Amino acid sequence: MASIIDGVKKPTFDASKVTVIYVLGGPGAGKGTQCGRLVEDFGFSHLSAGDLLRAEQNREGSQYGNQIRTCIREGTIVPQEITIKLLEMAMSAELKTRSGRGWTDGKGRFLIDGFPRKMDQALTFEETVCAPSQVLVFEADEEVMIRRILERGKTSGREDDNIESLKKRFQTDKELVQPVIKYLENKGKVLKINSNQSIEQCHKEASEAIHKVLV
Ligand SMILES: Nc1ncnc2c1ncn2[C@@H]1O[C@H](COP(=O)(O)OP(=O)(O)O)[C@@H](O)[C@H]1O
Ligand SMILES: O=c1ccn([C@@H]2O[C@H](COP(=O)(O)OP(=O)(O)O)[C@@H](O)[C@H]2O)c(=O)[nH]1
């Protein structure tokens, strides 16, 4: 069977026709929740790297299923070739099927949630797909994130919404994701939002920042 990966190479769409916003933050910081709200406001396509990986993991015949499952359970990062290819394919598909609906400036609007989580991903995506216009980073205290994830775990069915996986995800966040945030901060693209606050307050701060990017 053909692989979904045929090397990271130029995507099939024109990078000048898309606006990409990265949405980062620890597990349970509220990335998915806030993306849902921003989709309503601005007509973004919301691409969660974690959701794309879970879908690929469960796809019948996927040769990456076991590898993805192990990484997710252990809170480690899936090799970039897999994640970037999945993102690129999802972006191409959206650009074909939506053809501008809800994108008032004619550019494809993408919220990329939970990515990049490692420096190699940040650099490769920038080189082969495009650079982000803005980066939203939701920051919550560890005890707040633990409480939210354990609550979510009661119904999410996710193999990593438990305290053992969570501790490993926090470790990965410190070691790998924080350097990516520093790198993006040096480019002046990062807005940090305190997500111990209410969903409403986080949304207000996030949507103000997006307004400035999309004008
Ligand atoms: N600001 C907030 N205040 C209280 N609960 C929140 C807040 N943001 C998200 N939640 C809840 O916390 C859980 C994790 O949020 P989610 O958006 O899935 O986080 P992430 O995508 O960052 O892992 C969800 O059950 C969500 O309803
Ligand atoms: O670019 C990515 C994004 C996610 N993941 C994996 O998917 C898991 C779940 O990520 P998601 O963003 O869905 O969940 P969160 O930890 O933010 O709740 C992570 O812990 C990683 O194992 C990954 O390998 N690369």
Q: How is this structure best described in words?
A:
Helix 1 packs across helix 8 and helix 2 (49-58) crosses helix 3. The protein starts with 17 loop residues before the first strand and ends with a helix. The longest helix is centred in the last third of the chain and has 24 residues, at 163-186. The protein has helices at residues 31-42, 49-58, 65-74, 80-98, 119-128, 142-156, 163-186, 199-214; strands at 18-25, 45-48, 108-113, 134-139, 190-194. The mean pLDDT is 93. It is built from eight helices and five strands, in the order βαβαααβαβααβα. It has one domain (17-214): P-loop containing nucleotide triphosphate hydrolases (Rossmann fold), CATH 3.40.50. By secondary structure, it is α/β, with parallel strands linked by helices. The chain binds adenosine-5'-diphosphate and uridine-5'-diphosphate (UDP). Residues 27, 31, 48-50, 53, 71-72, 75-78, 83, 114-115, 117, 160, 169 line the site of uridine-5'-diphosphate (UDP). One of its GO terms (cellular component) is nucleus. It is found in: Cytoplasm; Nucleus.
